């Protein structure tokens, strides 16, 4: 399978503004932000869509939520949206699972 743009960012083939990384996820700033804060939380495991998440991946999905919490604390966000676009009909463009963390709609 061809490497996704997010895998290429993780492998530092393509530059990105990295906000956070650990052994399971990388968090980058979206290149076309839709809010004052627009981050992408991306697992290193290249799962194509939410529909491909297996039972063994559930701790990873929990970890993503924990990372969202930590980012909100670190960036002192008063609130945020955590969004996953699933499949073409769901508006997904990059088929490597990721969650959009958006904040700052009423600043
Ligand atoms: P989705 O539609 O949920 O698949 O979202 C893909 C997101 O990736 C979009 O919001 C894009 O703006 C963002 N994106 C695409 N390429 C890059 C890149 N090189 N660096 C950062 N964000 C990107």
From TrEMBL:
Enzyme active site: 98 (tele-amp-histidine intermediate)
InterPro entries for this protein: Histidine_triad_HIT, HIT-like, HIT-like_sf
Domain HIT: 5-107
GO molecular function: hydrolase activity
UniProt motif Histidine triad motif: location: 96-100
The keyword Cell wall biogenesis/degradation appears for this protein: no
Keywords: Hydrolase
Residue stretches in coiled coil: none
Keyword Hydrolase: yes
Protein name: HIT family hydrolase
Organism for this UniProt entry: Brevibacillus panacihumi W25
């Amino acid at each position: 399978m061809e490497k996704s743009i997010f895998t290429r960012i993780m492998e530092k083939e393509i530059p990105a503004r990295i906000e956070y990384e650990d052994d399971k996820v990388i968090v980058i700033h979206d290149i076309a932000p839709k809010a004052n804060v627009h981050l992408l939380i991306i697992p290193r495991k290249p799962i194509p869509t939410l529909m491909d998440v297996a039972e063994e991946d559930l701790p990873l999905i929990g970890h993503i939520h924990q990372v969202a919490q930590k980012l909100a604390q670190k960036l002192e966000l008063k609130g945020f949206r955590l969004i996953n676009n699933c499949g073409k009909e769901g508006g997904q463009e990059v088929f490597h699972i990721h969650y959009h963390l958006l904040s700052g709609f009423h600043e």
